[in-house]
Automatic annotation (TrEMBL):
Alphabetically ordered keywords of this record: Membrane, Transmembrane, Transmembrane helix
Highest taxon of source: Eukaryota
Name of the protein this chain belongs to: ABC transmembrane type-1 domain-containing protein
TM spans (from-to): 12-36, 42-66
Organism phylogeny: Eukaryota, Metazoa, Spiralia, Lophotrochozoa, Mollusca
Length: 79
């Protein structure tokens, strides 16, 4: 009986250790996923948004230049 009881204790310890290890693994995986998502969002905000802003500014400057060029090129109609 002593051996069986000891053996059962070992099984309980193994089960507890396995559960603790699973919980730790799940927590680590969740933390890693959250960190990766935060890093990706920061990279997108820091790199992509300024690039988009610069492209939009260049397009706006080109459009304004074309518009002013058209205004300069259009013949002045006397009233």
């Amino acid at each position: 009986m002593r051996y069986l009881y000891y053996h059962d204790d070992n099984i309980v310890v193994v089960i507890v250790v396995v559960v603790v290890v699973e919980v730790v693994v799940v927590v680590v995986v969740v933390v890693v996923v959250v960190v990766v998502v935060v890093v990706v969002v920061v990279v997108v905000v820091v790199i992509v948004l300024p690039v988009v802003a610069v492209v939009v500014m260049i397009i706006m400057i080109i459009l304004i230049a074309l518009q002013s060029y058209r205004i300069l090129e259009s013949p002045i109609v006397p009233n």
